[in-house]
Amino acid sequence: MAHLTKMRTFSQNKLWRDKAVGLMEQTGSKIHWERLDDAQYEKQLRLKMLEEAQEVFAAQSHNELIGELADVLEVMNALCAAGGISWNEVVSAQETKRRERGGFDDRMFVIKAEHPEGGFGEMYCLKDPEKYPEIDK
């Protein structure tokens, strides 16, 4: 008589790396998946970028940080391929932004910003009030 292993089911609802399904099935797991269309795929890649960025934030060691940054790079490569964007285009845009706005070398942490009414800064902050809440005086 064959021994039946009791299974527990967990919701995933996220994009997995290509080989991960097979690797998990080799350990006895049963993975239920579907192939995404282009629009669904790009949306899931963007969600994966958020997940990976959170994992970069939570990394506890140097090696863990390297691994999480590698995951971010993998998602960036996939997003570029899905959007028909070359890596050179991304690097060029990064270089342009660095030239125009600088990098993060000076470690400037902004506490608050006061913008004139009707100006660019005010409009920019008002577009995303959860990210940039107005401070009462």
Protein described:
With 137 residues, this protein is mostly helical. The longest helix has 22 residues, at 62-83. It is elongated and about 75 Å long. Helix 2 (38-58) runs antiparallel to helix 3. The relative contact order is 0.06. It is built from five helices and no strands. The protein has helices at 20-26, 38-58, 62-83, 87-101, 120-126. It has a domain at 36-103.
Shape: elongated
Order of helices and strands: HHHHH
**From the helix content, strand content and strand pairing, which structural class follows?**
mainly alpha
The termini sit apart by 76 Å
How many strands in all? 0
What fraction strand?
under 5%
Set out the fold topology:
Elements: H1 20-26, H2 38-58, H3 62-83, H4 87-101, H5 120-126
Descriptive labels:
137 residues, elongated, mainly alpha, 53% helix
Quick description:
The protein has 137 residues and is mainly alpha-helical. The chain is built from 5 helices and no strands. Helix 2 (38-58) runs antiparallel to helix 3 (62-83).
